[in-house]
Amino acid sequence: MTSCEKEEIIFEIDNLNRDMITVLGHGGMGIASTYPMNSFESIANCINLGTDGSEIDIQMTNDGVLVAFHDNDLSTKTDLTGIVNSLTWQQIRNGQYNESPYMTYAIVSLEQLFSNIPDVSSYRFTFDCKLYRETTDNAAYYDQFAEAIIAIVEKYDLQRKICIESADEEFLKVLQTKRSRYKLFIYPKNFEEGLITAKKLGLYGITISTNQISAEEVEIAHNAGLRITVWDAHSEQENYEAVQKNPDFIQTDDVKYLVDLLSATLEETRARNAARLDSIKNKRNLPFDSTSQAKNRYLLISFTFNKFFECLPVSVADGKEGFSRGTGLIGNWYNLYFFFINSLNSIEGDNIRVMDTNKLARW
Amino acid sequence: MNTKLIFSIICPFCFFYKAAFTQQLLKPLALNSIYVEALGMGGYGSINYERFIYQQKKLHIGVRLGVGTYRLRDFETNLNPDITIPFALNAYYGKTHHAEVGIGQTFTSIVGASTVDFRVNRQNSLSSNFTVGYRYQKSNGGMMVRVNYSPIVSINQSFKHWYGLSVGYSF
What we know:
The structure holds two protein chains of two kinds. Chain A has eleven helices and 16 strands. By secondary structure, chain A is α/β, with parallel strands linked by helices. Chain A is globular and about 60 Å long. The termini of chain A are far apart. Chain B is mainly beta. Chain B is 15% helix and 56% strand. Chain B has one helix spanning 2-26, and strands spanning 32-39, 45-56, 59-67, 83-94, 97-113, 120-137, 142-149, 152-153, 159-160, 163-170. An eight-stranded antiparallel barrel of chain B has the order 1-2-3-4-5-6-7-10. The chains are: A alpha/beta, B mainly beta. Chains A and B meet through helix 1 and strand 7 of A and strand 5 of B.
């Protein structure tokens, strides 16, 4: 960790997330906000303060609608009673959070949430799946819940932006069977249990309280190819200490502080990655442009496969079109692109769009 | 004999104590108070001015006006503060340690998301408040402290248990 002239702290992040920490709000603005967790206001506020996105607690109504809500029983925080899964969306949609005096906030479905966040596919979200249910038919419930997630994720083109966490191994297996590429996290009782489960199931990572994991354990997880998401970062001190552990994601309860704390580090990392990209460009003498954030700028990307070189024209798009929509040969090449883009450490995979698909198909 | 002696010693003290106590009771409380209230009628907090408009022996009646806020910026981070304005009529009974009852209204202007299009939306409303509590204030002013139970009845008839703690200065 070093300091620059403005006395901003620059952390030396070393993780599996391109050496950057993804900052997510904990249910939006966190547990201490006057906005209720998981309300539209809380999540929108969190995004507007400059986070990468937000963690959202999700539950399913008995007619299959995903609702952003944390607690087991609605009566703890709203003017409704019962568990979400015992009611239909029609019964819940007029319910309101009534924790705070004078203020009422609506309970929102994920559909309402995502359809009202501008450019929603540019943000990252983590779904914390709360599987409170009335039914004893777990298989059917898991299946319906997983299908509901897939439907909303694909509708809003969030496949690459979503992480899904659950404490329930069986549910994760169901999701994994349906969508093997989803980034799934186990939410264990402790780190050791999480490590074993994540390795066994081949998950993307572990979600754990920052108080239950050390920097050494984060490194162990990284060495095993597992990402770490930490939560329980309430105070400034807890957020600061969480950053020092090198996790890949932090679900913070102090959004503004963490965004400010990591802003200098983020700029530094982006600059370093851009420099690394330039270095690769010069080495290969390819007409790359490292300012990959610019829209509609043509790039030439070359990559190796079977000792064969090819240049493909691509552009930096607005993120709404991506390889994940490709079919046939394009779909087959997606892995190669993504691998290469990752190795450049600069360009977001979502921002790359093939401009000449005929050429790709020929190749 | 012993009983008479004890009475003869204690009674004069009782008399003088009573006389002194009565004189103090007649002295009105400092008329004005400024205090900060945590929670209470203002929601999560408010700054208040209170003035006694009637005082008779141990009975004191005051009116209170305050202003509070939850946040200054809306969820789109634009300057757009929530506003709460509590107004109340309070009655106190006591000399230094007072029992308190009160009734009031709070005007609120809160910024949230519209339930129709989820854009920033300001909603104004009026709620009723009741107060039962305790107030510490010396007659000649100085520091004052209030602690009370102050439930809120919103315009949609919902009832919310609520509490308040005030610290301020009377003069």
